[in-house]
Each structure stands twice: as C-alpha cells, then as structure tokens.
Amino acid sequence: MNRSVLISGCSGGGKSTLLAELAARGHAVVEEPGRRIVKHELEGGGAALPWVDMVAFAHRAIAMAIADHTAAQEQAGWTFFDRGLLDAAAALQHLTGDPVLEKLSAVHRYHETVFLTPPWPEIYTTDPERRHGFHEAVAEYDRLAAIYPALGYAVVILPKIAVAHRADFILDCLSQQ
C-alpha cells in the first residue's frame, strides 16, 4: 500500500498547521517544497522565487519533491506531504504548457486519496514566503481540484474545522481504506 499522503489545496488553507498537528501525533511529515525553496533563496539572495522567476522556482520544487517522495518510500507508517510533486508539476505546466504532469504523475504516485484544503478567507494571510493574494490562491486551488481527479486520484475536501478535528478526519478516512 502506498503510504505517501498528499495534502494539497488552497494556499493559506491550513495545510502547514495541519501537518504540524500530524507530526505532533508522531507521523512523518514533509514540509512544502515551495516554502523551503523561498526560505533558502531569500537567505542566499537567489532568484528562484515565485515572484521573480516562477519557472525556475517550479523546476526547483519538482526536483525537491521527487527527492522527498523517494525518501518517503523508506518510511514504515504514513508520511504526510504539504503539497508535493504534482502541485509543482501543475504549476510548471500551467506556466509553460510543457506536458510534465502526466509523465511525472505516472512514475511518482501518492496514496490514492488526496486531501484538499479549500479556500478559507477567514484564515488566509500573506507572509514573507507567501506574497500572492487570495484570488491567486483560489485560482490555483481550482486548477488543482480539477487536476487530481483527472490523474486518477480520489479527492477529499477537508472540512473547515479545528486543526485537531481535521487531523482526526484524515486519519479516520485512511483507516477506512
């Protein structure tokens, strides 16, 4: 059974907070590639930033996500990903038209169920690593919500509830499969 679980969805929808809750419960988690890249680029004065060179940023995110996915195969239990390869590939394909998504998704599969955080304006904020606005976040969410089923994943939209209850919801869904 594939135990690499992808949590994707709207920026600012509570993914990172949810992953922190799952980690506190002893599950392996993988931080979002985009946030790690932005932090590294800002510290080193790099240009692979979504607001400077989105194509370079997407290529870096794809490479990092492939490495993350490969490393997770060694884990015995569930590994929860804050975004991942398919999000990065979808961004690159949207920007360039390069059909990378289907090729990469065929080789690097996640668990059959993908959990999406829906747009949640009440908790959305920007920060030094998330500079885009809510409307851009919703447009990205809409693309992802269409892409995952087209790639053969079952999509579960997470309810807008307290983080502990969201974690319980995900674990309950996975235990029933």
TrEMBL record:
Domain NadR/Ttd14 AAA per the UniProt entry, residue ranges: 5-166
Domain of life of the native organism: Bacteria
Matching InterPro entries: NadR/Ttd14_AAA_dom (IPR038727), P-loop_NTPase (IPR027417)
Native source organism of the sequence: Rhizobium anhuiense
UniProt xrefs under SUPFAM superfamilies: P-loop containing nucleoside triphosphate hydrolases (SSF52540)
Protein name: ATPase
